Amino acid sequence: MTTLSAVDLTDPEDREQQADVTRRLLYFLNAPIVEYCRLRGVLPAPGAVRIAIRAGDDENARDFLYEIPNDAVTPYYVPGLLRTVLTGPQLHSSSDVDEVMGMALIRLRPQEITPDPEPEQGRALTAVRALSGPGDDENPFLIGFLMHGDGLLRLYLQRTDRPGIVGADIRLTEMPATALIASLPSLVEEDQYRQPSPDDPHCDLLVDLTNW
Q1: Please, what sign has the CA dihedral across residues 27, 169, 175, 141?
Q2: Which among 6, 78, 99, 183 has most CB atoms closer than 10 A?
Q3: Would you list the DSSP string of 191-212?
Q4: Do 106 and 160 share a domain, yes or no?
Q5: Does 199 fall in a domain?
């Protein structure tokens, strides 16, 4: 059984990784990661993040602590990594298994695991969350969204230059659309992407960024 002293995250990159993973997993407090597997916590460890999972129904539940090295995978892939581990049989060497705080500790080797693809809802959540900053309450940019079509997400955006709402369609790809999201404020102002919105009464015009 491993005994740890208090963890001091002195490395700024470790702190950022820990905080990013924590934010990304908050959604799973209300929804199972996979069937019968629920998030119990996100814990710091030296050079790693540990994800506490309760697996099984209430009568036969067991608590596991999955350790993921910070330098092995970006936070975006952590949910997919967990889905792979929790949905299929996994073999772990005895050196990768321990016990901490009454939970079975399993040290994962991400380089040997193929992350399960992010479901459409998860990809939509990533895009919406990136546009929903806590400091935007007084002058919000994102004011709504709609998942529609085949892997499409319509973002309802408040224009900064004049009154009116823009509906911006983006495609939910496997990779996070970081550059697209960052460029949205300028892209919605470009005439080449704009078109009328006769079928959507919730916006004044549409911006088609599905091929951007």
Answers
A1: negative
A2: 78
A3: GGGEEE-TT-TT-SEEEE-TT-
A4: no
A5: yes
What residues contact 123, with CB distance under 8 A and at least 6 apart?
Answer: 153, 172, 173, 174, 176
Residues 28 and 83 in one domain: yes
> Count of CB atoms within 10 A of residue 186's CB?
8
- Domain span holding position 152: 120-208
How many angstroms separate the CA atoms of 177 and 203, rounded? Answer: 23
Domain boundary among 83, 112, 141: 112
Tokens of 57: 């129904």
Query: Tens of pLDDT along 110-142?
Result: 999 999 888 888 888 888 888 876 555 567 889
Tens digit of each residue's pLDDT (9 = 90 or more) over 73-98: 888 889 999 999 999 877 888 899 99
**Model pTM score:** 0.74
Domain boundary among 112, 133, 152: 112
